[in-house]
């Protein structure tokens, strides 16, 4: 039943029922029911109709109104995401791309002139390319429509699975954490850290086996991403410090009061995010 039909039903049904009662009373029951009793029965009938039929109609009307409000909110959010993606593309992304082109030209000129590595253009170019990749990934995420009917209702597990589909990466997942253990901000930051860990496992360390584990409760939990890629070299601290994405991930974790550790052991590379210490 549509919103308009429900409104008309609420307006018409009481009038029709009261009109039918008055017609029957005056035509057939006038000899059996006194005027005073009839006048008493009329509001009783109206009350019974209100708490039965009209109550259900009002519940239906409220449900339809909530669905309309949710649809409007989803549409407004999608419009805002599209606008933000357009602004990122037209501004930051194009500027970063132009900057990376100029750095490449400057590096070629420097190599031709034999100036050596005084300006460290190679490191600067890597940083710009990393930032450019992150901005374009953000644009892609903003343009990607969220689950239409479950916006705001998707579980953390479902969002991680959706993230895997977006990144086109196969992950063995063992997820025992509950959504109630995280605030909305914690979920956003944790998803961003997991995305970066999976992205690094896919692009920087072409791994054939990636595992994601999550365990614990709201007070004490850990999330571990492991892969069988080549991992880091002997100077792991320098390598981690020079990677822009890992730096951002560490800053996110520290801002939330979490601890994060990154390392390689026994042919496996691991990113571990913890809250409240080590799980036993």
UniProtKB/TrEMBL annotation:
UniProt keyword Protein biosynthesis, yes or no: no
Entry superkingdom: Bacteria
Annotated GO MF terms: ATP binding; phosphorelay sensor kinase activity; protein dimerization activity
Domain Histidine kinase/HSP90-like ATPase: 185-279
Enzyme Commission number: 2.7.13.3
Family matches, as Gene3D superfamilies: 1.20.5.1930, Histidine kinase-like ATPase, C-terminal domain
Protein name per Swiss-Prot or TrEMBL: histidine kinase
Organism listed in the record: Paenibacillus zeisoli
């Amino acid at each position: 039943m549509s919103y308009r039909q429900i409104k008309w039903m609420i307006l018409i049904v009481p009038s029709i029922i009261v009109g039918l009662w008055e017609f029957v009373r005056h035509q057939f029951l006038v000899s059996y029911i006194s005027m005073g009793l009839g006048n008493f029965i009329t509001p009783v009938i109206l009350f019974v109709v209100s708490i039965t039929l009209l109550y259900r109609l009002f519940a239906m009307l409220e449900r339809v109104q909530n669905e309309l409000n949710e649809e409007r909110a989803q549409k407004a959010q999608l419009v805002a995401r599209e606008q933000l993606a357009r602004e990122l593309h037209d501004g930051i992304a194009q500027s970063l791309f132009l900057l990376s082109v100029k750095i490449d030209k400057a590096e070629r000129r420097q190599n031709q002139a034999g100036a050596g590595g005084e300006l460290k253009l190679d490191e600067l170019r890597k940083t710009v390319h990393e930032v450019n990749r992150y901005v374009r990934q953000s644009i892609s995420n903003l343009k990607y429509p969220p689950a239409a009917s479950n916006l705001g209702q998707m579980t953390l597990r479902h969002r991680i699975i959706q993230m895997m589909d977006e990144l086109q990466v196969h992950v063995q997942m063992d997820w025992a954490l509950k959504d109630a253990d995280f605030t909305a901000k914690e979920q956003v930051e944790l998803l961003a850290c997991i995305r970066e860990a999976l992205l690094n496992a896919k692009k920087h360390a072409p791994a054939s086996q990636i595992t994601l584990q999550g365990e614990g409760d709201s007070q004490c939990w850990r999330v571990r991403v492991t892969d069988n890629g080549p991992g880091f070299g002997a100077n792991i601290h320098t390598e981690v410090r020079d990677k822009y994405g890992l730096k951002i991930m560490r800053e996110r974790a520290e801002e939330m009061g979490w601890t994060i550790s990154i390392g390689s052991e026994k042919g496996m590379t691991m990113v571990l995010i913890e809250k409240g210490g080590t799980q036993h």
